[in-house]
Amino acid sequence: LNAPKLFDLSGRVAFVTGAGSGIGQRIALGLAQCGADVACLDRRTDSGLADTVSMIEGAGRKAIAISADVTNRASMDEAVARTENELGALGIAVNSAGIANANPAEEMSEEQYQTLMDINMKGVFFSCQAEANAMIRHGKGAIINIASMSGVIVNRGLTQVHYNASKAGVIHMSKSMAMEWVDRGIRVNSISPGYTATPMNTRPEMVHQTKEFEAQTPMQRMATVDEMVGPAVFLASDASSFCTGVDLLVDGGFCCW
Ligand code: NAD
Question: How far is CA 165 from the centre of its chain?
Fold first, then answer.
């Protein structure tokens, strides 16, 4: 066993959703820094996705930008097909696209509930379907879904029943798909971050809560996006070859308290 090579992603092709910002953007770059070529997907129209691609190219790897919405199944199939045409056989997928917002449960509109569920759960499902259809043909692959510690605990003070339920759904959906595809060479795992410093936490209703998040976290701070790279590289690489159906909490100890 060549232990340092366990984390080497040279020659692999990765596909990352939500790659135009935050955790997805940093993981896309991290996979490239470990040797992978990366297809970067996002629905945003600002420079986020182009920034990710240029950072990856700066790291000496190939990257493509794909503008698509994870809630559109046909678009996800097309995105994976384009990835394979332009970069090669898909081996790694990280599904980070997601949204968060809040409202008391008794007041939440059907539209607010449904829009979030469509992106955070159905979007992850469509992403996994498209990715697995390619990986099943190759007989191998690693899928990593970005869930949340909110799928494990209820964040004190945050009225986000739909978000919490969507993330519990992502964790259990990942385990279910891991079992469906275990004999096809595909591993499916999830990462559940704790509070992480990204644009998601700078939306207006969250800004004043940052200090409280830090105080509630045993490590007394939020994670940086850099701290999501190691867990993602681990689950994407041969270092985790016997891990499937795992939810890896990366929460600074939050769920222990
Ligand atoms: P972010 O807002 O910085 O990035 C999310 C990206 O997903 C954005 O670029 C956005 O355009 C994209 N996206 C949203 N809906 C999409 C859609 N329908 N189709 C395609 N792309 C879409 O947020 P982030 O903090 O990096 O969050 C990434 C993931 O991590 C999310 O699933 C989030 O729930 C999860 N998470 C975040 C935290 C945190 O504290 N930031 C904690 C736990 C889990």
Answer: 17
| Residues ≥6 apart with Cβ < 8 Å to 54 | none
Residues in the chain: 257
Identify the DSSP state of 154: P
What is the C-alpha to C-alpha distance for residues 250 and 168, in angstroms, rounded to an integer? Answer: 15
pTM score, whole prediction:
0.98
Rounded to whole angstroms, how far apart are CA atoms 30 and 42?
17
Q: Is 69 exposed, middle or buried (0-12, 13-18, 19+ CB in 10 A)?
A: middle
Kindly report the average pLDDT of the chain as a whole number.
Answer: 96
Alpha helices, H only, 48-198:
48-58, 73-86, 110-117, 123-138, 161-180
Max distance between CA atoms of the chain, in angstroms, equals: 56
Name 109's Cβ contacts closer than 8 Å, sequence gap at least 6: 103
Question: What is the ipTM score, two decimals?
Answer: 0.99
- What confidence tens digit (pLDDT) does each residue in 161-191 have? 999 999 999 999 999 999 999 999 999 999 9
Q: Which of 15, 125, 126, 163 is catalytic?
A: 163
Of 112, 115, 181, 101, nearest in space to 142 by CA:
181
**CA neighbor of 90 nearest in space, from 52, 45, 148, 41:** 41
**How far is the centre of ligand 1, averaged over its atoms, from the C-alpha of 183 (Å)?**
30
pLDDT tens across 13-55, in order?
999 999 999 999 999 999 999 999 999 999 998 999 999 999 9
Q: What is the pLDDT of residue 153?
A: 98
- Above 70 in pLDDT, residue 249? yes
What is the CB < 6 Å shell around ligand 1? 17-18, 20-24, 42-44, 48, 69-71, 96-100, 119, 123, 146, 148, 193, 195-196, 198-201
